[in-house]
């Protein structure tokens, strides 16, 4: 199977209908050629039979004398669009330019095949297109308010001898470039510009045709973005021989300069600070130059954050465009003047702190008696700070009981004094703190013992939690102005500084309590001097000489220092000679008497003499030991081992110090 191929030169199918005085561009392209990718082109023109050379891409001497001036001025030129395509551009085409145009390409092929030129007929017709604006003047100025409606008109007509169609479009320019609003195309279709599709579908942007070839642009709900210069842009189109539409000319006329006065909503004051129980007064001002009949709808909102949207904010009060105000007990909304609306919040409290803003809508009457909302705006938020009413009072801390020894009680009273400017809506609570007392400038952070909230519920800190739960540390409210802290048995680890903080709480409108003030007392130092415990025990033998079978008797006298109300326990021991095999360790525990005077036989194992030893308390600090019917095996050194006890927490006894007496010897060999 063989294919025939060769160079193909193409121009549009004619005739090409163009309007006198316009710029014409005739394209020419070449394909299926050999040689370099960039091809050259020659253009020639014929009115009847002979062709006259116009211009060439490669030969500067190609132009005939008839066209040299026009080519030299640039009225006729070639514009290359690619390596294989150019356009012949004729500026300000005239009737004399009507005729046949031939595009030729010099051969670069190895063999001559295909066509090397192509012709197209150009027909130049008279300009029958007329575009105009208002008959009164070429351009008008419109000053409108946001939300208004306006209409602009232009007239477009053509008397072209050819069957042409008009494309009429409206454009606006608010900066440096024109934007398409809405067009009626040459094919009879409406085409909204970018960004105007939704407004076209809703009917806010319309284009209507009228008598005398007029085209009316209608704009409803005008916004500030609609301000600018408006023009009517009309292009004339003809269907070519190949069935495609070709634009043959375009004209425009500026119709109006439209300015849109923006409607603003502002709150007359900026950041506001008011005192609790006072009134908050804010005014919402609507700025508009609207002179006709209108009514405003106003809504006041509250938000905890300036970034909240209306859906997140709380609606406080509203007034519709019929001046009907929604109900509220402590908030009122009044119409001060035509464009000002006042919000009054009475008896404010701390919870009213936040951000306030108003939303306003403008309504205008329609011909049927109904009202139509034309614009809606929201003000910037205004920060409102409500300062709590602080009651004036002092706090005094004193110790009603201070310890002199360990395990003594401690009691501190925190009292509220010099109370002024308090109301029934104020109550007090206390927090207790401990701080270890260090010498020098060392700083130790305070530790929370316990605190009370607004309803006097006790909240425990980490320090002493177990002792508090066991009842060893007690917190109480003695009276309306006095709170107490009691340590039942004070230990050395409790020594340090104590202070209290009295908190004032204010009751809000929703019956919640919010802390309004803290006052801290001066610290009270709990301290007592500690000295080493001392214990002395003296043993005395009552009968200096005795023989076996007699009674051995000795007393132990005890003295102590720096021990609070001591009691003593006593243990009698005996050190036997090393020859005594019954006790290889040398020391025997015989009998004991504890601090509650309970007697116990320890290691006394002589069953024949169970009642042979007696230990008794003679007085608080004196104890007597008797051993009846002594035997040779009883020989040894006898001592009193004494332990001093002091009262501890919870009725328990705490061991303080131990003491050992001098030895008393039983030696039958030397006894008389």
UniProtKB/TrEMBL annotation:
Residues 21-113, 146-254, 263-360, 391-520 form the Ig-like domain. InterPro entries: Ig-like_dom (IPR007110), Ig-like_dom_sf (IPR036179), Ig-like_fold (IPR013783), Ig_sub (IPR003599), Ig_V-set (IPR013106), IgSF_V-set/TM_domain (IPR051102). The keyword rRNA-binding does not apply. It holds the Pfam family V-set. The keyword Transferase does not apply. It is found in: Membrane. It is a single-pass membrane protein. CDD domains: IgV. One of its GO terms (cellular component) is membrane. It comes from the Eukaryota. Transmembrane segments: none annotated. Keywords: Disulfide bond, Immunoglobulin domain, Membrane, Repeat, Signal, Transmembrane, Transmembrane helix. This is FPRP regulator.
């Amino acid at each position: 199977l063989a294919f025939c191929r060769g160079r193909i030169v193409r121009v549009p199918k004619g005739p090409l209908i163009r309007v006198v005085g316009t710029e014409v561009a005739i394209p020419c392209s070449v394909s299926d050629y050999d040689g370099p990718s960039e091809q050259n082109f020659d253009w020639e023109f014929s009115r009847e039979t002979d062709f006259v050379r116009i211009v060439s891409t490669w030969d500067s001497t190609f132009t005939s004398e008839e066209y040299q001036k026009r080519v030299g001025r640039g009225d006729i030129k070639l514009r290359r669009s690619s390596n294989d395509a150019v356009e012949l551009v004729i500026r300000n085409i005239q009737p004399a330019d009507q005729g046949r145009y031939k595009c030729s390409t010099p051969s670069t092929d190895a063999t001559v095949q295909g066509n090397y030129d192509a012709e197209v007929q150009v027909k130049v017709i008279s300009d029958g297109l007329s575009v105009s604006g208002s008959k009164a003047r070429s351009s008008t100025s419109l000053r409108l308010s946001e939300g208004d409606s306006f209409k602009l008109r232009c007239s477009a007509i053509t008397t072209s001898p050819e069957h042409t169609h008009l494309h009429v479009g409206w454009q606006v320019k608010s900066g440096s470039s024109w934007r398409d609003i809405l067009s009626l195309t040459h094919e009879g279709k409406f085409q909204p510009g970018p960004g105007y599709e939704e407004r076209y579908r809703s009917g806010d942007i319309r284009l209507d045709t009228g008598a005398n070839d007029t085209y009316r642009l209608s704009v409803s709900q005008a916004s500030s973005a609609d301000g600018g210069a408006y023009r009517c842009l009309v292009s004339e189109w003809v269907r070519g021989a190949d069935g495609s539409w070709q634009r043959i000319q375009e004209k425009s006329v500026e119709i109006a300069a439209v300015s849109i006065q923006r409607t603003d909503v502002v709150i007359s004051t900026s950041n506001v600070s008011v005192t609790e129980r006072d009134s908050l007064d804010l005014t919402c001002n609507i700025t508009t130059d609207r002179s006709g009949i209108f009514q405003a709808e106003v809504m006041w909102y509250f938000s905890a954050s300036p970034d909240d949207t209306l859906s997140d904010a709380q609606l406080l009060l509203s007034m519709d465009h019929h001046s009907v105000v929604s109900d509220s007990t402590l908030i009122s909304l009044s119409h001060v003047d035509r464009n000002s609306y006042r919000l009054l919040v009475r008896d404010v409290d701390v919870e009213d702190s936040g951000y306030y803003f108003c939303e306003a809508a403008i309504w205008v009457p329609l011909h049927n008696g109904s009202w139509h909302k034309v614009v809606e705006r929201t003000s910037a938020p205004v920060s409102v700070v409500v300062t709590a009413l602080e009651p004036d009072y002092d706090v005094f801390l004193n110790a009603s009981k201070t310890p002199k020894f360990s395990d003594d009680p401690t009691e501190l009273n925190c009292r509220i004094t010099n109370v002024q400017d308090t109301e029934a809506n104020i109550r007090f609570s206390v927090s207790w703190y401990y701080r270890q007392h260090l010498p020098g400038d060392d700083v130790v952070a305070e530790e929370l013992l316990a605190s009370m909230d607004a309803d006097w519920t006790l909240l425990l800190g980490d320090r002493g939690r177990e002792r508090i739960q066991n009842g060893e540390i007690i917190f109480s409210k003695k009276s309306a102005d006095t709170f107490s802290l009691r340590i039942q048995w004070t230990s050395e680890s409790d020594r340090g500084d104590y202070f209290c903080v009295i908190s004032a709480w204010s009751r809000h409108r929703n019956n919640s309590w919010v802390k309004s003030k803290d006052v801290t007392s001066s610290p009270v130092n709990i301290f007592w001097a500690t000295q080493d415990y001392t214990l002395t025990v003296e043993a005395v033998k009552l009968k200096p000489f005795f023989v076996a079978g007699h009674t051995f008797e000795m007393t132990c006298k005890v003295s102590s220092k720096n021990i609070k109300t001591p009691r003593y326990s006593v243990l009698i021991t005996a050190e036997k000679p090393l020859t005594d095999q019954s006790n290889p360790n040398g020391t025997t525990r015989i009998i004991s008497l504890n601090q509650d005077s309970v007697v116990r036989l320890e290691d006394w194992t002589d069953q024949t003499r169970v009642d042979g030893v007696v230990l008794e308390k003679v007085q608080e600090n004196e104890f007597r030991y008797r051993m009846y019917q002594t035997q040779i095996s009883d020989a040894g050194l006898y001592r009193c081992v004494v332990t001093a006890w002091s009262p501890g927490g919870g009725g328990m006894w705490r061991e303080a110090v131990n003491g050992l007496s001098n030895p008393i010897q039983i030696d039958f060999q030397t006894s008389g």
